[in-house]
Amino acid sequence: MNSTSNTLPATPAAKDDHIFWNQSVKLASMLYHWKLVDSYESILTLINIHQQYLQQATFKPDRIFLPPLEEQLPKVDGPRIWACFHIGPYALMARALIRRGHGIAILLKDEVFEEQYPMYMQQFKKSFGREPKPTELQFVRSSSSRSLIQLKQLLKKGYHVICYVDGEEGGEKGWTQIHVHNFGMVRKRQKPF
Q1: CATH fold label, 68-172
Q2: Is the pTM of this model over 0.85?
Q3: How many CB atoms lie within 10 A of CB 57?
């Protein structure tokens, strides 16, 4: 059997690496369950990339996942709503869109906003070397009675909306199956917002 860059050890190398290994296997299992990988070789490649990503410093400089994501990101002719899970490098979608010159609006629960707003600002500064401009980053609190109106207005202004489907609940309350239609395809809206 030839040794390639996709070859992985059967067990984690260091004592504490079992947590990283389990995260990578969980990610691969999820992608396989959702039929987003086409072969075992693809799964091993993803695990290898994910392991390299996890071995970086706490702040991830986006050199591993961001370039391939940007290459695969479809060209869009207008704002979209992007639904993500709080798993793996979930903030990369926001960074990729901002790097393309798009403004983003992030939908968050109040407690998540209060807790993580400073982290969002810190991550933005580390990623882009400056504070965000109002045209680049907006937050919408989901508990506001006007949150849907705000989202509609931001979409009309050209902002992409990012929301986290699990609401930072993770797997604590169990998984809910979500059927995604036209996954991987850009779908043009039929009527204006």
Answers
A1: Cobalt-precorrin-4 Transmethylase; domain 1 (3.40.1010)
A2: no
A3: 6
